[in-house]
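Before relying on records like the one below, remember that each one covers exactly one chain. Contacts with other chains, cofactors or solvent are not represented anywhere in the record.
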Amino acid sequence: MGRLQQLVMELRRRRVFRAAGIYVVAAWVVVQVASLIFPAIDVPDTAIRYVWLIALLLLPLAVVFSWFYEFTPTGLERTPPADATTEFNLSLRRLDYFIVGALAVVGVAIAWQLSANIRDVSLSPRVEFAAVEVDPYSIAVLPLANLSGDPEQLFFVSGMQDALISGLSRIRDLKVTSKTSTMRFSATTESLPNIASQLGVARLIEGSVFRVGDRVRISIQLVDATEDRHIWTDTFEDDIEDVLRLQSEVAQAIAEQVEVVVSDNVEASFEVVRTVNPAAYEAYLKGQFHVERYTPQDMMAAAQYYQQAVELDPDYALAYYGLSKLCGFQAQAGLISPEEAWDRCYPPIARALELNPDLPEAHMGYAAHMTWQRFNWEEGAKGFERAIELNPSYAEARMFYSHYLVLIGRAEESIEQMRLALELDPFNAFVRGLYGAQLMMIDDYQGCVDVIEEVMQTTPGFGFGYGVMWESYYALGLKDEAINAFVNHLRITLGNEAGALALEEAYVNGDYEAAVLHAADVIAEHSKTDRVAPTNIAGLYEQGGDIEKAMEWYEMAVRNHDPDAPYLGVMTATPEVQSHPRFIALLREMRLDYWADLYSKEQSTN
């Protein structure tokens, strides 16, 4: 009888196969239960892999245990050797207690260590909205009523609200909710305490604007939301050309009533105001509305309004910031080439900074350009930090700063900045959309899908998010959903109907890898005549398993300064790409050293 056959017979006699089978079934049940429980207690699906690891690593311990011991109706006993006599003592000896104890210690250590990883995953990714005490120096400016009776004045009235928020936001000790989140209460019948509770503020500003000819009158009421009572009211009036001075006076008066400390620098900024062309101001506001809807049609409309604002007022810094913001969004969506973005996006932001060096929006625009067009991390950080210094309640700056931080590997700081952005602007679709993208970047794929789906359901026509949903669905193994998300990304966000049709037609038979490879080939050919982001093509090749072609397109993205290239460290999910020497070299070239070091370390341990 051969040794292998003898070993198999001995394993059967000691009932090792039976014990291993029972263990496998029990482990499978545990994994299934965990997969059902984890979502209910807000533990991301990615933590399931640690449950599998625990089960896998404990299997050898179970096999060793079953070789030496077995459970009987009388308790735990030793397994007798094949040649044991009938008088063999089955009870445990001192050595057996030591062996059982050692196996238990090793098993507990393995389970404890990997359970710690589960806890880390469950605690880190999502921004939790725990109940916290409302800051007494928090305030929201509700949409102002238009008493002019002229619908054409709606954008002007909206601009007055925007200006009050901007003025108050410069006060460091005052937490001011962003305008976008207050707009849902423009025609509400909800009580003021209920509105304040939803916005997380202690005080509210109500008011109205009345414009007749060249005169503007604004009436303001300060409300203590905790007691639902008006604590101050006043009326201000001035000529239309001096509307910025009027807005500064109102902001100063509100700050005095709130009894918040206003620094000398902010006080001086209230005094230094210029006249404004009302038509240019309204054109800028219309551009802002369209650009954040993130569709090709809206960006075309935004371009017209921003250009109109600049032509009407060549010294209007905000209008130049709008042009730069639009340019960056067009580059990010793949509607213009990186070369165009390099030439077109910087001059307007430089002009905005020249016209107003203390404009928070201009510094944020500078930071965004340096980060996503020029890959200059140091200058990007300076811009974001200066924008937030000038306007601590600048939700959009904190949102983009959050993405910047995760790009360079500072995830914990990134989560905190996104938390603050969501507190300041909780109902802004674009902020929540980028929050979903951040969840994808920190591997909370189900969280990303949940957030983006909610945004798209509540904001019809919102074009941002399909690309990150594609990545998340793929990571979750939901290939039908991944195909549908990327089709929408091509068709709605990028306006690439040929690529969308190619992907739909190729997926008829349900072969995901073949479909994405076919779509990659079609879109790659299409890119010879129309603008397509190289990272999108690279991602398709990566998911289809053609790693060399994926690398070619990732390298092209870096060479061409594609604005999606900064996301290489956080967006690539396949080990074959992450461990590829050319990919690690790309990360080094971009000075994304955190990710290069991480993937190099993982490669050396595998």
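Residues 94-123 form the longest helix (30 residues).
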